[in-house]
């Protein structure tokens, strides 16, 4: 049986600000989307952490997760991720122990080493940011102990887990070999940011993860996933039209111009220059954009090629209804028979 035949799908939402709406709308839309995706049967709903960006405004995933926990009952809720070098590991452990008490057995703690913003912002968050990333492996080890309710370094993170409860599941997130090797060494699940790297390096990272994996009590075998960007609509033309917003953002980001997501109509009216069209066509050749059948086929192909049992889907669209419809279409494609 292929991996794709039993593929589980999850969600990463980045709380993207959209032109014409205040930034708070992006966060409120994330809450609504979480409720929607739970009803559709998605396995997990992850939220990201970024700082100082006018596009991705989710700066406090632990707070957003608490709000999602209050509005949902089944779906796993996670960070993708907490940028650990900004913080003290004990404080993060306490936050996620609180979350686990609010939503027992439903919390994922995804952690990353990247700053999630520029270096000036990183220094403002942590004056020792220049060397903080060096402590990342030890921080993850500390989190493993404290989130389980163990006394570690003479300290305990409260509230303690209920007897027989399942503590937050720690994931190492990354877009390079570093995170893959650390996750393997510690026996932890690993999520590769496929959408961030356009897939570059994914085969090597997953190969290292599986080859070097050291079984742990909770995870005796490797548990990898990838996060991809995808957009489905009723027709391929409609999907490609709505994808214009992100295409414009990608090109602007390369020029150092960041801002809210523009409407696809505005992007279509302005168009792309000849040089930009070359870059856009390259993006489109790799994009998972089209009808539900086309996108699902692409997801299943990736799952088979990379031997995955789970894929996390990230979708941007200026219109919240377009995103919800995309997730609904894909949920139908992967619904249990």
Would you give an account of this structure?
By secondary structure, the chain is of the alpha/beta class. It has a single domain (3-236, 290-333), classed as TIM Barrel (Alpha-Beta Barrel), CATH 3.20.20.30. It has 14 helices and 9 strands. The protein has helices at residues 23-40, 61-71, 89-102, 119-125, 129-132, 136-147, 177-186, 194-197, 202-212, 236-254, 264-270, 274-286, 292-306, 320-333, and strands spanning 8-13, 44-47, 76-83, 107-112, 169-174, 190-192, 224-233, 288-291, 310-314.
Outline the fold blueprint:
Layout: E1 8-13, H1 23-40, E2 44-47, H2 61-71, E3 76-83, H3 89-102, E4 107-112, H4 119-125, H5 129-132, H6 136-147, E5 169-174, H7 177-186, E6 190-192, H8 194-197, H9 202-212, E7 224-233, H10 236-254, H11 264-270, H12 274-286, E8 288-291, H13 292-306, E9 310-314, H14 320-333
Parallel strand pairs: 1-2, 1-9, 2-3, 3-4, 4-5, 5-6, 6-7, 7-8, 7-9
Task: Provide a quick synopsis of the model.
This protein has helices spanning 23-40, 61-71, 89-102, 119-125, 129-132, 136-147, 177-186, 194-197, 202-212, 236-254, 264-270, 274-286, 292-306, 320-333, and strands at 8-13, 44-47, 76-83, 107-112, 169-174, 190-192, 224-233, 288-291, 310-314. It has 337 residues and is α/β, with parallel strands linked by helices. It has a single domain (3-236, 290-333), classed as Luciferase-like domain (TIM Barrel).
């Amino acid at each position: 049986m292929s991996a794709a035949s039993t593929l589980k799908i999850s969600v990463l939402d980045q709380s993207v600000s959209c032109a014409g709406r205040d930034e708070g709308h992006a966060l409120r839309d994330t809450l609504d989307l979480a409720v929607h995706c739970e009803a559709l049967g998605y396995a997990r709903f992850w939220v990201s952490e970024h700082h100082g960006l006018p596009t991705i405004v989710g700066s406090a995933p632990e707070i957003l997760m608490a709000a999602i926990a209050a509005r949902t009952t089944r779906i796993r809720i996670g960070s993708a991720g907490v940028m650990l070098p900004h913080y003290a590991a004990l404080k993060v452990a306490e936050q996620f122990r609180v979350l686990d008490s609010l939503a027992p057995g439903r919390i994922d703690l995804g952690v990353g080493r990247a700053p999630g913003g520029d270096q000036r912002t990183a220094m403002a968050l942590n004056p020792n940011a220049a060397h903080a990333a060096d402590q990342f492996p030890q921080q993850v080890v500390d989190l493993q102990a404290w989130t389980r309710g163990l006394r570690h370094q003479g300290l305990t993170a409260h509230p303690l887990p209920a007897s027989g409860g399942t503590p937050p599941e720690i994931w190492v997130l990354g877009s390079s070999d570093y995170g893959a090797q650390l996750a393997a060494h510690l026996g932890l699940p690993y999520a590769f940011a496929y959408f961030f790297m356009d897939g570059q390096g994914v085969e090597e990272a997953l190969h290292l993860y599986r080859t070097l994996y050291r079984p742990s009590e909770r995870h005796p075998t490797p548990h990898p996933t990838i996060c991809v960007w995808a957009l489905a609509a009723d027709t391929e033309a409609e999907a490609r039209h709505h994808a214009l917003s992100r295409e414009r953002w990608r090109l602007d980001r390369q020029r150092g111009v960041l801002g809210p997501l523009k409407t696809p109509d505005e992007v279509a009216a302005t168009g792309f220059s000849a040089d930009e069209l070359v870059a856009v066509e390259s993006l489109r050749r790799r994009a998972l954009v089209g009808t539900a059948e086309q996108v699902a086929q692409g997801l299943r192909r990736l799952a088979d090629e990379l031997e995955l049992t789970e894929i996390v889907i990230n979708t941007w669209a200026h219109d919240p209804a377009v995103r919800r419809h995309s997730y609904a279409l894909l949920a139908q494609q992967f619904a249990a028979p």
